[in-house]
Automatic annotation (TrEMBL):
Residues 40-168 form a coiled coil. Keywords: Coiled coil. This is Kinetochore protein Nuf2.
Amino acid sequence: MGTGSRKEYSQMPRQCTSSRACFLRQTGLQEGHAQKKSDISEKTKRLNELKLSMVSLKEAQESLKSKIADSPKKVEICKEKMKGTVQKLRNARQEVMEKTEVYRDSVECLPSCQLEVQLYQKKIQDLADNREKLSSTLKENLNLEDQIESDSSELKKLKTEENSLKRLLIVKKEKLATTRFRINKKQEDMKQYKQTVIEYGPDAGLGLRTHKESREAFKVKNSASSDYDVIILSGFFRLFVWDCNKVQDKRGAVCEQVTTITLEIQKIKSGVQQLKDSTKREKLKSQEIFVNLKSALEKYHEGIEATTKEYCSRIEEKTAELKKRMFRVPPSSA
C-alpha cells in the first residue's frame, strides 16, 4: 500500500461517525418539523374554531342589540328580576351559612354529648350491678332473719324443755328429800328400837308395856331368857340391815337419776347459752349489715338524685341552646 491509501483508510472512521451524527441530526430535524407542522395545524384549527365562535357571538350580539333596541322596558324588568334573584340568593346564602355554623357547633358538641351518653350508660350499668348486689344482700338478710327466727323458735323450745326439766328436778328433789326424811326417821326409829331392845329386852320394842314395866321385866328375865334375846336381836339386826341396804340401793338409784338429770340440765343450759350467743352474734351481724345497707342505699339514692338533677339541667340547657341556634331568625341583608 501507498501512503495515500493509508491516509484514506485512517480517515474512514471519522467520516463514518460524522455521517452518523448528520443522520441523527437530520432525523431530529425532521421530527421537529413534523411536530411543528402538527402544532400549526392544531393552532389553525383552533383559530378557525375561534373565528366561528366570534361569528356566532357577533350574531348573538347583533340579535341582543336588536332586542335591546326593540324593548328597553323588558330589559329593565329583567334587571329588576335579576336584582331580586341576586338578593334572594344572597339571603339564602346567608341563611345557609348561619345554618352551617349551627350545624358545625352541634357537630362540635356531639363528642361531649357522646361522652355524656357513655357516662350515663356506665352509671346505668353501675346501677344495675348495685341493684343486683342489693338484691343478693337483701336475700342474705332474709336468710339470716329466717335463721334467727328458727334459732329463736328452737331457743323457745329449749327454754320450755329446760323449764319442764327444772320442774322435774324440783319434783325429784322433793321426792329425794321425802325419801331422805323417811330414811332418817327409819334410822332413828331403828336406833331407838335397838337401844331399847338392848337395854330392856325384845318385848320393850313392841309397845305392850311402859318403860318402867319393861325395865322391871328385863331385870326379872335377864338371866333366864338371854339366849332367846340374842336370837330375836340377831333377827332384828338382819331385818334392819336388809332395810338399810334396800334404802341405800334406792338412794343410789335416785342419786344416779338426779346426777343424770343435772348433767342433762347442764348440757341443755350450755346448749341454750351457745344458741343465745350465736343468735346474739347473728342478730348483731344482721343488724350491722342492715344498717350498712340502709346507709349505703340512702347515699346511693342521694347520689342518683343529685346526678339525675344535674344531668337533666345540663340536657335542658343544651337543648334550649340548640333550639335557639336552630330556630334563630337570620338578619335581613339589604
